[in-house]
UniProtKB/TrEMBL annotation:
Keyword Ubl conjugation: no
EC numbers: 1.1.1.18, 1.1.1.369
Record key words, sorted: NAD, Oxidoreductase
Source organism of this protein record: Alicyclobacillus vulcanalis
Pathway membership, UniProt: Polyol metabolism; myo-inositol degradation into acetyl-CoA; acetyl-CoA from myo-inositol: step 1/7
Reactions it catalyzes: myo-inositol + NAD(+) = scyllo-inosose + NADH + H(+); 1D-chiro-inositol + NAD(+) = scyllo-inosine + NADH + H(+)
Protein name: Inositol 2-dehydrogenase/D-chiro-inositol 3-dehydrogenase
Length: 340
C-alpha cells in the first residue's frame, strides 16, 4: 500500500521532504499540498513535476483519501494543524518544535490520549543520525562509566532579519534539548542562559551567540552553544564526558584537501546536507509504520512536549539570566513507552 501524504507548508523543508518522498523513499506519494500562500504550494508542486492536488488546509484534512500529513509550516502554526489532523484521523509527521507553547503541546498530548494511541511523530531527526546513534550506544553500554558532562555546539552560517533571540531556543537549541536527554537517558531539572559579547554580524535585535547550561535530574551538566551567524558553515558538535573516558560525535564524511601547504576539509553549509540521511531515515520509518497501521515509533508528542517545556525555561532564563526550573505540568501518557 502506498501512503498518500498531504503536506502543510511548502517552504524550505516542506519542499525538501516532498522531494525525498517522491524521489528517494519507498512507499509514499505526495497526493495533496497546501500552504498559507497557495501560490507557494502550486510552485512547489510544479517544480517537482507531480500531480498533487492543491487546496486549503481544511479541504486537505477533509479528504478521506489522505492517510497522513507532513506539517512543515513555521513553528507557531504547528499546533492548530496537528490538532485538526488528529481530529480528522490522520497520522501526523510534524517538524520541530511540536508547538511553540507548553499549553499547545499539552493540548496535543491530551488529544492523542483521548484516542489512546500514538498518531504523531516529531521531526527531531538527530535520533536517526548514525553518529548520534553510535554515541547513544556507547553511553548505554556503560563501558565509559556514567556520563557527567555534555558539551554541545550548534552553529549556523547566517540567519535572516526575521530570526529573533527567542528563536535561538525555540527553533535551534530545541534539537539539543531533545537529543541530549535521549542520549543520556535523563530529564532536565534546571537551565540557565549566559550571553557572550555579540558578533558584529548579528542584526540589532538578536543576541548571538548564546550559551545555555542545563542540569539534569541526576546532576549531569550540559553546556550548549548556539551561534547562528558563525559565517563559515553548519557545525554540529557533541562530546560526552564520562567517569572513565569521553565520546564525541564523528565528523561527517567530507572530502579533505591538501593544497598549497594547507590541509583542509569541507564544512557543510546547512542542515539539508548535514542531516540528509537522518531526514530520509525518519520519514522512511514513519512511512513503514503507517503502512503497517502501527503507531509511529520516532520522537513522540510527549518528547515534543518535554523539548518545548525545557525551551520555555530557557526563554525565561534568557530574560532572568538566572537558573530556571523545568517542571512538567502533566504526566506521561501510559500508551507512550516509558523510555526517556
Ligand atoms: P519556511 O519559512 O521556509 O517555510 C514555512 C512555510 O510554511 C512557508 O511556505 C509558509 O508560507 C508556510 N506556512 C506558514 N504558516 C502556515 C500555515 N498556517 N499554514 C500553511 N502554511 C504555512 O520554513 P522552514 O525552514 O521550511 O521551516 C519549517 C519548519 O521546519 C519549522 O518548524 C522548522 O523548525 C522546521 N525545520 C526543521 C529542520 C530540521 O532540521 N528538522 C530544518 C529546517 C526547518
Ligand atoms: P519556511 O519559512 O521556509 O517554510 C514555512 C512555510 O510554511 C512557508 O511556505 C509558509 O508560507 C508556510 N506556512 C506558514 N504558516 C502556515 C500555515 N499556517 N499554514 C500553512 N502553511 C504555512 O520554513 P522552513 O525552514 O521550511 O521551516 C519549517 C519548519 O521546519 C519549522 O518548524 C522549522 O523549525 C522546521 N525545520 C526543521 C529543520 C530540521 O533540521 N529538522 C530544518 C529546517 C526547518
Ligand atoms: C532550523 O529550523 C533547523 O531546524 C536547523 O536544524 C537548525 O540548525 C536551524 O538553526 C533552524 O533554524
Amino acid at each position: 500500500m502506498t501512503i498518500r501524504f498531504g503536506v502543510i507548508g511548502t517552504g524550505a523543508i516542506g519542499r525538501e521532504h516532498m522531494r525525498r518522498i517522491t524521489q528517494k523513499l519507498l512507499g509514499g506519494e505526495i497526493a495533496a499540498v497546501t500552504d498559507i500562500d497557495l501560490s507557494a504550494a502550486r510552485k512547489a508542486v510544479e517544480e517537482l513535476g507531480i500531480e498533487a492536488r492543491i487546496y486549503p488546509e481544511e479541504e486537505l484534512l477533509a479528504d478521506r483519501s489522505i492517510d497522513a500529513v507532513i506539517i512543515t509550516s513555521w513553528g507557531p502554526a504547528h499546533e492548530a494543524s496537528v490538532l485538526a489532523a488528529i481530529a480528522a484521523g490522520k497520522y501526523v509527521f510534524v517538524e520541530k518544535p511540536l508547538a511553540t507553547t507548553i499549553e499547545g503541546c499539552e493540548r496535543i498530548v491530551q488529544a492523542e490520549e483521548k484516542i489512546g494511541r500514538r498518531m504523531v511523530q516529531v521531526g527531531y531527526m538527530r535520533r536517526y543520525d548514525r553518529g548520534y546513534q553510535a554515541l547513544k550506544s556507547v553511553v548505554a553500554c556503560g563501558e565509559l562509566g556514567s556520563p557527567l558532562m555534555v558539551r554541545c555546539t550548534h552553529r549556523n552560517a547566517a540567519v535572516d532579519e526575521r530570526y529573533t533571540t527567542e528563536m535561538a531556543v525555540l527553533d535551534t537549541l530545541v534539537h539539543e534539548l531533545d537529543v541530549t536527554r535521549w542520549l543520556v537517558g535523563d530529564d532536565y531539572a534546571e537551565v540557565q542562559a549566559v550571553f557572550p559579547r555579540r558578533t558584529k554580524y548579528a542584526h540589532e535585535a538578536l543576541q548571538d551567540p548564546q550559551i545555555f547550561l542545563l542540569r539534569t535530574q541526576t546532576g549531569i551538566v550540559i553546556t550548549a552553544e548556539v551561534f547562528v551567524n558563525c559565517r563559515y558553515g553548519y557545525d554540529i558538535q557533541c562530546e560526552i564526558v564520562c567517569e572513565e573516558g569521553t565520546v564525541s560525535l564523528p565528523a561527517e564524511a567530507s572530502v579533505e584537501f591538501k593544497h598549497d601547504a594547507l590541509h583542509k576539509r569541507a564544512v557543510p553549509q546547512d542542515w539539508k546536507l548535514r542531516f540528509a540521511d537522518a531526514y530520509d531515515a525518519e520519514l522512511q520509518d514513519f512511512i513503514n509504520q503507517v503502512e503497517r497501521c502501527n503507531e509511529p515509533q520516532g520522537p513522540s508528542a510527549w518528547d515534543g512536549y518535554l523539548a518545548t517545556l525545557a525551551a520555555e525555561a530557557c526563554v525565561r532564563a534568557q530574560k532572568s539570566q538566572g537558573w530556571e526550573s523545568v517542571t512538567p505540568g502533566i504526566s506521561q501518557p501510559k500508551f507512550i513507552a516509558g523510555r526517556v
